[in-house]
Amino acid sequence: MLMRCVTTRRGYSEGGEAGTARARQAGPRRAFTLVELLLATVIGALVIAVAVGTLRSVARGREQAEYYSQMLAHGRYAINQIRNDLANFYRCLDARQMCLEGRSGGSGAMAADRLRAFVVSDRAVGERLREGDVYEVEYGLREEAGGEQRYLTRRVAPVSNTAVGNDRGLLSEVSRHVRVLQFDYFDGRTWRRTWGGRADYPSLVRVTVGLAGPEAEDREITLSQEIALGPLPDVGLMLLEASGDSPAIGTGGEKGDE
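Given the sequence above, the corresponding structure tokens read:
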């Protein structure tokens, strides 16, 4: 038993010496040099910079897309509201009973025009007045406290006497972020910046709105649309309808075959 133990201890000792000898022959392990560490650091920094720049660009593009989408929605709603009112412009055989008045409030980036007109509508305003189907509407711009932001307003009031109108009514906000409001009127030959109030009305009204968010004057967008006003009622046709007569269709006065 004693000899086995000695042999075993001896074998272990020989194995350990052999392993030490092999480790000495292999030499020390090679580490990264300073140049390699610096190169890896530079490459990592470049990859991170490119990734951060890409993320920022994507975030900025998404923010701009949301901004322009919001401005377009406000602008389209404003133009649609004005178009719906002008499509129902009040027309009368007595031109003195009609009203479309356009006043200029500057031009360019500071344009703040006003438009007043009689329209036909079946929507009640809610005033304690006897309402018919003729209303006076007026569009213009108002400024918030401090003058930093403008918004489009619409005033509507029932009209009981078209010869006088109604300068009261209900004032409501139509669209925010509207910085420019401009109306141009086509008389059949030229475009005019203003329009008289009675006895005549233009064939076309061009509405231009410029929109920009708070502290975003450099990202203003402009929308424009031309709105056609229909012709006056046919006096002869109205008289025929009132009398109950109507022109015969398909009787052009031709003689039948005998």
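Confidence is low (pLDDT under 50) at residues 5-13, 235-240, 248-258. Try to locate this feature in the token string yourself.
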